[in-house]
Structures are given as C-alpha cells and as structure tokens.
Amino acid sequence: MDLHALRIFCRVAALGSFTQAAQQLGLTKSRVSAAVQRLEVQLGTRLLQRTTRQVRLTSDGQQFLARCEALLADAEQLQAMFQPAANGLRGRLRIDLPHALARDLIIPRLPEFLAAHPLLQIGISTSDQRVDPVQDGFDCVLRIGTLASTELIARPLGAMAMCNLASPAYLAAHGTPRCLADLDRHSLVHYAGTLGLQGAGWEYRDGAQNRVHPMRCSLVVNGTDAYQAACLAGLGLIQAPLRGAQHLLDQGRLVAVLPEFTPAPMPVALLYPHRRQLAPRVAACLNWMAGVLAPQLDASP
C-alpha cells in the first residue's frame, strides 16, 4: 500500500478539506483527490463522504484512519532503524510556538538541531493564539498557561515566574500602588485570546488560592508584543512572565510593583496528538526543545 497516499488521506481526514490538505502538503487539489480515490478503489469502500460544503469520514473511513495513523508511525520508526546514524532523521516537522519563545529561545538554538539532523524540514508557526494540532496539522505545539481539557498528550516542562509591571511614566502620572485597594485608582491592560473583557482583573496568589481583584480596563490586546508595548507606552499595569521582562527591568524601562501580589507561576508544556508510536523525528524535536527550555523554567508549581 502506498504510504504517500496514506499520508494524504490522513491529512484530508484531519482537515476535512481537500483544498486545505493540498495547501499543507504542497500538492495540487487534483493530485490529493486522485490519491484518495485510488485508495478507495484499492480498498473497495468509500472512506470519505464528500459534499459541496464539507468532507466527512464514513464509518469505514474512521476505522481505516486509526489503523492508517498507527501504520505510518510504525513505518517511520522502521525506516529510522536502518538509516545511518550520521544522516540523522528525515521528514517534515510542523511546530507552533508562542512568538516570544520562538524568537528568544528556540530559533537562536535551531542551527544545532538542524546540524544534527540535516535531512529534516521544519515549519514553525509563531502565534500567541492557540491552534488545534490535529486540525491544523502540527506535530507538536508549545503552550504557556493552564491547559484546557484535551485529548492531546501533554509533556509538562516547568513554569514561568510572573511579575507585575508598569512604566516609570505611568507611575509618575498615577502613583505607585502599595496594596490591593490602591488598584481601584489604576488601569489594567488586559491580555486575552479574543478581544473581550472576560477574565479581566488583577490576579494574585492568596496562600494556595488564586484570586482576582476587579480593575478598570481601558485596553485589551491579544499578542505578547502588543501587551508589553502597551505597558511601555504608559497605558496601564500588566502581569507578565519575568523572563521576558527582565531586560526591560534592568534597563529601567519598566518597574516591578506589588511583588507580594503576583500571579501563580505560568505552566509551560509541549503538546502533541495521541499516537500509539511517536515518530522518531517528533520525539527528537520534543526532547531537544525540552532541553533548550529547561534552564529558563522553574519547577512546576
């Protein structure tokens, strides 16, 4: 059975679209459609139900998909067993990373990983918005923050210490808060995946409890660069990972406030779709990224 055709089928099934699968695989839509049709003829059954609006797996297609994914993972492991060690791994990797971590930590160290595995092709998406690894075709994603209930496999890496920040100009204009009650006279820049005020407030730990003090919010952003820029511009207080703000604190461009009322450390984890066998190239990438990030993280809370 043609492994390339199986990979095409799996991508179409995951995306529910021949067009999107073709775009991700770098193929024409007609070639993708023909590969799936050949599989169906070979198997003697319809795998996908096609309509003008969507593509769905048939019951046979659902059974075939599960076996197909396991077969592809086994085939990749089998191939890797007999490749000369000097050649490293081969194949394509698609990874989604938070923008700041990609820029500051992962990409600067990427040459060493590619030097060890020169036959790999890596695609990196940098976004502060959460993606669906299965739907969007990623081998793994790096997540910062509390994980929602998911069928993905999570590999916890540690946590990032948090801090509260303001610009000197903002503090000169509005005063420095000394207690939670003082926050009633201040403004918060809110970070949210969607541009709404849901969840806005000053987060802090009270013993083992996480609490939120309501605050006035005049600006909502959905990206880490915009969040930091808003604070530097004096638009309000923010709560952010200390690692990403330390250079600004050292330069005096930002000031830490209310250190006794900081949020709980933010967990960091690698996530990947459930597989019976993890492809060697994915396992190698996960291990490498974990090693790169470990010195930058605290133990999980």
TrEMBL record:
Matches recorded under Pfam families: HTH_1, LysR_substrate
Boundaries of every HTH lysR-type domain copy: 1-58
Alphabetically ordered keywords of this record: DNA-binding, Plasmid, Transcription, Transcription regulation
Domain of life: Bacteria
Transcription keyword on record: yes
GO-annotated biological processes: DNA-templated transcription
Annotated SUPFAM superfamilies: Periplasmic binding protein-like II, Winged helix' DNA-binding domain
An example molecular function term from Gene Ontology annotations: sequence-specific DNA binding
Keyword match DNA-binding: yes
Gene3D superfamilies: 3.40.190.290, Winged helix-like DNA-binding domain superfamily/Winged helix DNA-binding domain
Family designation: Belongs to the LysR transcriptional regulatory family.
Identification of the protein by name: LysR family transcriptional regulator
